[in-house]
What we know:
The structure is a homodimer of 338-residue chains.
Chain A: E1 2-7, H1 11-22, H2 24-31, E2 35-42, E3 45-48, H3 55-60, E4 70-72, H4 76-82, E5 87-90, H5 101-110, E6 114-117, H6 121-125, H7 127-137, E7 141-142, H8 156-159, E8 165-171, H9 174-185, H10 190-199, H11 208-211, H12 214-228, H13 247-255, E9 258-267, E10 270-279, E11 291-297, E12 301-307, H14 312-330
Parallel strand pairs in A: 1-2, 1-5, 5-6, 6-7
Antiparallel strand pairs in A: 2-3, 3-4, 8-9, 8-11, 9-10, 11-12
Protein name (chains A, B): homoserine dehydrogenase
EC number (chains A, B): 1.1.1.3
InterPro entries (chains A, B): HDH_cat (IPR001342), HDH_CS (IPR019811), HDH_short (IPR022697), NAD(P)-bd_dom_sf (IPR036291)
Amino acid sequence: MVSLILVGFGGVGRALVEIMQNDADYLRSNFGFVPVVKAICERQGSLIDDNGLNLSNLLDLGDIASSPYWQAGLTTLEIIQEIKADILVECSWASNDGEPAFTVLKTAMQKKMHIVSSNKPPFYLKYGELKQIAQEKGVMMRIESTVLSAVPALAAETTLAGAHISSIRGILNGTCNYILTRMTQSKLPFKEALKEAQDLGYAEADPTMDINGKDAAGKIVILSNALLGWNKTIHDIKVQGIEDVTAEDIERAKREHKYIKHVCQAKDGKLSAGIELVPMDSSLAIMGSLNLVEFETKHAGPYTFIGRGAGGFEAASGVLSDIIHISTQLYDSKKENL
Amino acid sequence: MVSLILVGFGGVGRALVEIMQNDADYLRSNFGFVPVVKAICERQGSLIDDNGLNLSNLLDLGDIASSPYWQAGLTTLEIIQEIKADILVECSWASNDGEPAFTVLKTAMQKKMHIVSSNKPPFYLKYGELKQIAQEKGVMMRIESTVLSAVPALAAETTLAGAHISSIRGILNGTCNYILTRMTQSKLPFKEALKEAQDLGYAEADPTMDINGKDAAGKIVILSNALLGWNKTIHDIKVQGIEDVTAEDIERAKREHKYIKHVCQAKDGKLSAGIELVPMDSSLAIMGSLNLVEFETKHAGPYTFIGRGAGGFEAASGVLSDIIHISTQLYDSKKENL
């Protein structure tokens, strides 16, 4: 059994609870994983039950504030002080300064909790500080879903350890990729392609962070810190978006047998995020809303991982892989199954 | 420090020693990994030094039998009885019955050593038996390079744990893929494409196991056992090779906007390995000598991993990732870096 405090019950948090509930048998038999959710924290208050909340009942509630375990006004920081849990799972929200998530994560590690997060800003702003606290306190910090949801990009720290990653590049924003794909394949104008992406749920109602390149830039910052040992922030990268790409640009590229793509890169100590012309037979020439990350290695050439980089269940899947990883580390008896 | 017995000093074993030597600083600072190679076993005898062999000196030797630490006739099984090491690393050879590798791996686990192997036959013949011994003895069994070298396919057991893998398919043999690619893109006849693959070093002098599909079939057997919890052997799969593919077949497929590919699959309890017509825009339509594995998941769609699936340094990189994984499990002090 591993005990959790869950911060945030939006799309990701709710999907996480749903998977843990519906996959309970698979998770127990394959990974010895039996979660006990001691608290769920939202902005207006918290659900709390030291014996573990009933996940099935929870999912039946439209509004968790209607639960008998709901305590209005009880804050996440109060919960962290009051409740002892193995892992704090943070799937909430952060503004441009990384708060309130940053303080929540920091406080939880200071209380010796391991942390799992799907929240980007704390990690593209203050990765070094959080990593240092994790090391000082001897806790694990797993943040797969801050990058490409469940695509095991950050896991490459260990899974490609022997190959020795030397640089990273990728198509790190599905909305940008979808818009450019539609402009390329069906000659849609930018605005129409964006509208379609919004209608299909790929782009947010406010798609600014997607199309101005900042979302993708934050991801390459996190990748470079975690996998190349850098200590960068979003302020160390010059970011170009896709707003100014025209139908003419795309047609000109095609005549040179190239596609226009939004590419992020971490190489030779430098970060970049912007428009690139890539050959039509390049591994980066991936179409649709898919994401792609490619690791160049010292000993074994490039490795490419492709998958959906966004979505509630996708992010929750990555969060759950991180939770299971920590859980199997905590319980020696399961080590033979690693 | 982690102590190793290395079985086999051919292309993979030698590449492994070279990487451990040349990347010593990177491995120590990133993973706290400091290997002590206590013995290297070959068919004619073994090198042995309980204080750890000097890897740099070893690499300078053309023939390891000329080392002062060489003991002619000393067998791997004698070494396993005599020497205490954390991990037995098996990069040797096995015939169609899995021997001598199977007995070596089994004996090492019975002596409570963790094992890492790049040798396919023991695992596509007797996966269940070896896994059971590992569980009974509480040792780890890591075999990434038995499938696609350093492509972290078997690592998906944990890295995609949350997404819940439901089926697997892939292009699992680089020689087949190269031959079909050349037949498709340059209209080469089969025999000429095969000759080219041999000249370039993709195919073995005896390419039988590649082109008859058995090599790829062995890999999907191992993938299904490790990731889907099956207990299959190579005898449970009907295997088709690429020997009978003609130029006409390929042109006919092209007219339907399809490519001919050698595809392996594990789905709904069934294994397959053979020729398939795949749409030109399918994720399986990968060209050249690259390998590809795709995991369908219950919660987050498909995940595709692409990379080089063969070669001495590629296999050694996968073996080393496995060794590092075990090493970090053994030493708690490094856990915060996981």
